[in-house]
UniProtKB/TrEMBL annotation:
UniProt keyword annotation of Cell division present: no
Protein name: Cobalt-precorrin-5B C(1)-methyltransferase
Gene: cbiD
Top-tier EC class: transferase
PANTHER family the record matches: COBALT-PRECORRIN-5B C(1)-METHYLTRANSFERASE
Organism: Desulforamulus profundi
E.C. designation(s): 2.1.1.195
């Protein structure tokens, strides 16, 4: 922290780290200068200075490294070493990935299939910094690696996106803004583009990994399953901006009951009307007062399964599923067909509507609903 303890410290993207490491390696290789730190240009203007953890000259090449500092952002790549090796060759600057940097295996991303997962803006940054050192008419091969990157990538969206073997080198601004909800939300959107590139026009939106697992159990195609985290509304909007035709909301009843209440950012501390919503729909189905009171006294929404089953009103969840679909379709101005399927923690399907049945069948799910 700086002097103001309430101010969160910014950090650097993997793209900035790669560009700085490449520049440091080029400086040592071409000019014999071993730098402790280097200054690089930011894509949106301005400059930053990054520390260089090591420079290792070799025969005809040089290697340099930067330790990723994400500031106060909870970034899984924080502390990872980003390494650049620069080899002089030809007139062009060729950039590729080494160990710990992933390879793209599915279409729909900013990088073509078969290439290293180094996004366009970081590529431009690396090329610009190396070119500044080399001058015109001289080329180089630049290899970016991230020791330990394959293990770290397992904690990211890369496996879902078909990026194998490591992390992605990312960053459109060069600086990591700590705790950026907007950045996290944007990181989810490429899943939609990838599904569209693979030919899917009906998608499954689910808040988390439990829903991804459930979708697999139902026989839904994994390429059409999109994780939304708490950003259900934002992801519905992103679908509506694209040629998506239908969306199946699939998730635990605790999340999707919120959607039935018109809550589209489902983080609990922001909004929570689960008890009230379940109790209201139970009342509409004729639940007696003591049952409504039990629902209002629940510690978790999961308890509603037992309460409603015991009093013979399990179909309340079907009504809630239909309500969630109506609210979601309204949220995107009826630009999408929406169906909803909700399950309990045991995996039991407790509620679904006609839209869920139709969209699920279109996607080829393997399930027989009552």
């Amino acid at each position: 922290m700086n002097g103001n303890k309430s101010k969160l410290r910014t950090g650097y993207t993997t793209g900035s780290c790669a560009a700085a490491a490449a520049k440091a390696a080029a400086l040592a290789l071409v000019r014999g200068r071993v730098a402790d730190n280097v200054s690089i240009s930011l894509p949106l203007g301005g400059r930053i200075t990054l520390g260089i953890s090591r420079v290792e000259p070799g025969e005809g090449y040089c290697r340099a490294a930067v330790i990723k500092d994400a500031g106060d952002d909870p970034d899984v790549t924080h502390g990872l070493t980003i390494v650049a090796e620069v080899f002089l060759q030809g007139e062009e600057i060729c950039i590729t990935g080494g160990p710990g940097v992933g390879t793209v295996t599915k279409p729909g991303l900013a990088v073509p299939v078969g290439q290293s997962a180094i996004n366009p803006v970081p590529r431009q940054m690396i090329e610009r910094e190396v070119r500044e050192v080399l001058g015109p008419g001289r080329g180089a091969r630049v290899v970016i690696s991230a020791p330990g990157g394959e293990a770290v990538a397992a904690q990211t969206m890369n496996p879902r996106l078909g990026i194998v073997g490591g992390i992605s080198i990312l960053g459109t601004g060069g600086i990591v803004r700590p705790m950026s909800e907007d950045a996290y939300r944007r990181s989810l959107v490429p899943q939609i583009d990838q599904a569209l590139a693979l030919g899917y026009r009906s998608l499954v939106l689910t808040p988390g990994r439990m829903g991804v697992k459930k979708a697999g159990e139902l026989g839904l195609p994994p390429e059409a399953v999109i994780e939304t985290s708490n950003f259900i509304g934002a992801m519905l909007e992103e679908c509506a901006k694209r040629p998506v035709e239908a969306v199946l909301l699939l998730g635990h009843l605790g999340k999707l009951v919120k959607v039935a209440a018109g809550i589209f950012h489902t983080l609990g501390k922001l909004a929570d009307a689960r008890r009230e919503t379940i109790a209201a729909y139970a009342a509409l189905q004729g639940a007696p007062r003591h049952v409504i009171q039990e629902l209002m006294d629940m510690n978790t929404a999961e308890e509603a399964v037992q309460i409603l089953t015991t009093c013979g009103l399990p179909r309340v969840f079907h009504r809630l599923a239909a309500a969630a679909s109506r609210r979601a379709a309204w949220y995107v101005r009826e630009q999408l067909r929406v169906g909803t399927l909700m399950y309990s923690l045991s995996g039991e399907i407790v509620g679904y509507d006609a839209g869920a049945r139709q969209i699920g069948e279109e996607l080829g799910w393997q399930i027989s609903l009552k």
